[in-house]
Design brief:
The protein is an alpha+beta fold. The protein has a single domain, classed as YbaK/aminoacyl-tRNA synthetase-associated domain (YbaK protein), CATH 3.90.960.10. The protein is built from five helices and ten strands. The protein has helices at about 5-15, 30-35, 70-80, 90-95, 120; strands at about 20, 45-50, 60-65, 70, 85, 115-120, 125-130, 135-140, 150-155, 160. It has a five-stranded mixed β-sheet with strand order 5-2-3-6-9. A three-stranded antiparallel β-sheet has the order 1-8-7, with no helix packed on it. A two-stranded antiparallel sheet has the order 4-10. A hairpin with a 5-residue loop joins strand 7 (about 125-130) and strand 8. The longest helix has 10 residues, at about 5-15.
Length: about 160
């Protein structure tokens, strides 16, 4: 199965080096994908949409390694300039990105949506991200993320999961 067409077009237009791989849609969620296909959580990057809970709606896409936890209540909340923030529910993620959970990727998103990448992602030799759908993934060097206009690398965006 191919990458989402908008994602494939974006990757081609930006000249982002990558390899698209097939994924059983039933195994698209990170833990299942890593266990079944033999990828390490420390190279699998999750794209997570966060949204303000009160006041004017504000959103951001955050990219963090699967062995880390996004610092929503401190770093993300402060950076977005809101008092209350949470992970966007699946229906909001679908509405904003056009993608289903398990396939969300930082590629091909609305230009107005900020994309914050945890600095740990950039330290990897290769990363695996969603392909824009639940039936594909993208394997690539992380420096390709820097070709996205809305990307900002953020130190401390996420913290390693203990234990």
């Amino acid at each position: 199965m191919a990458l989402d067409s908008a994602v494939a077009q974006f990757m081609a237009e930006k000249g982002i080096a990558h390899t698209a791989i097939d994924c059983d849609p039933a195994l698209a969620d990170t833990a299942d994908f890593c266990a079944h296909y033999g990828y390490a959580p420390e190279q699998s990057a999750n794209a997570l949409l966060v949204a303000s809970s009160k006041g004017e709606p504000k959103q951001a896409m955050c990219l963090v390694l699967a062995n880390c936890r996004l610092d929503v209540n401190k770093v993300v909340r402060k950076k977005l300039g809101v008092r209350r923030i949470s992970f966007a529910p699946p229906e909001v993620t679908r509405e904003v990105t056009g993608m289903e959970l398990g396939g969300v990727t930082p590629f091909g998103l609305p230009e107005s949506l900020p994309i914050w990448v945890d600095a740990r992602v950039m330290a990897c030799e290769q990363i695996i991200v969603g392909g824009g759908n639940r039936s594909s993934k993208i394997v690539m060097p992380p420096d390709g993320l820097l070709l996205i206009d809305a990307v900002e690398v953020v130190d401390g965006l996420a913290n390693p999961i203990e234990g």
